[in-house]
Design a protein that fits this description.
Blueprint (H helix, E strand, L loop, with lengths): L8 E5 L4 E6 L2 E6 L13 H23 L6 E11 L7 E12 L6 H14 L11 E4 L3 E3 L8 E3 L5 H14 L5 E6 L4 H10 L4 E8 L4 E7 L2
Parallel strand pairs: 5-6, 5-7, 8-9
Antiparallel strand pairs: 1-2, 2-3, 4-5, 9-11, 10-11
Helix pairs in contact: 1-2
């Protein structure tokens, strides 16, 4: 096993009260936050710490989702840091809370997403290096519905059942490889899924976006 080295270069202007961080080929301005009596230009060390923790948490969570085959349309993470006893001599971060939002999950598997969110905190490389005085934890895990592609929603709730099946199969037949349609129904269209698998196995993917009680939304994609 070998050591890994990571580097960043920082310069500070005493005259302006701000500095530059050179990392990844880019320069980022930073200063002491205005709430702490500084210039408040660009980012600040406190935000950089939260960003480092959040980036590590997000990347770790993404890897766990992929390993568990938990699909998502997108993932957003909000990281909040609490500084206690400011401006006293013992001021410092007392808590860092990472709160993920999953968009477009696979229906019925929410507990698995919540479990992955908790594991990501435990396995986050940067988070492991926070001192024992910092309570690093996962906040509220939220779920959001993925927006359907514009003009590609098939809502059959107002149609009689025989007409629904005819329209659905006609629309599915028009899909090219990679095309996606969102089916909206007033009950679980699972029988349609079984029929597709029986007559056209492997040609369509099926992912629930919403599962009742008033509407069921399913994202159906034509596999290339």
């Amino acid at each position: 096993m070998s050591d890994l080295a990571f580097n960043s270069k920082l310069t500070w202007s005493v005259e302006s009260g701000s500095g530059l961080i050179e990392v990844g080929g880019q320069a980022v301005e930073f200063s002491v936050p205005a709430s702490m009596g500084g210039l408040g230009a660009g980012t600040n060390p406190e935000e950089l710490l939260l960003s480092a923790v959040g980036a590590c948490y997000t990347a770790t969570l993404s890897a766990l989702l992929a390993a568990a085959r938990l699909p998502i349309a997108s993932l957003a993470v909000r990281v909040e840091g609490i500084v206690a006893d400011y401006p006293g001599p013992k001021a410092g971060f007392s808590a860092i809370i990472a709160s993920p939002t999953f968009t477009g999950i696979e229906g019925g598997r929410k507990p698995e997403y919540e479990s992955a969110a908790a594991k990501a905190r435990e396995r986050c490389f940067i988070g492991k290096h926070l001192g024992p005085q910092v309570s690093y934890r996962v906040g509220e895990v939220q779920f959001a519905e993925a927006p359907a592609p514009a003009g590609n929603v098939l809502d059959v709730r107002t149609l009689p059942p025989p007409r629904r099946h005819e329209l659905i199969f006609n629309r599915l037949a028009e899909l090219a490889g990679g095309d996606v349609i969102t089916l909206v129904n007033d009950h679980d269209p699972k029988p349609l899924h079984y029929q597709l698998e029986a007559t056209q196995p492997g040609r369509f993917s099926w992912d629930y976006v919403e599962q009742g009680p008033e509407a069921w939304r399913v994202r159906i994609a034509r596999i290339a």
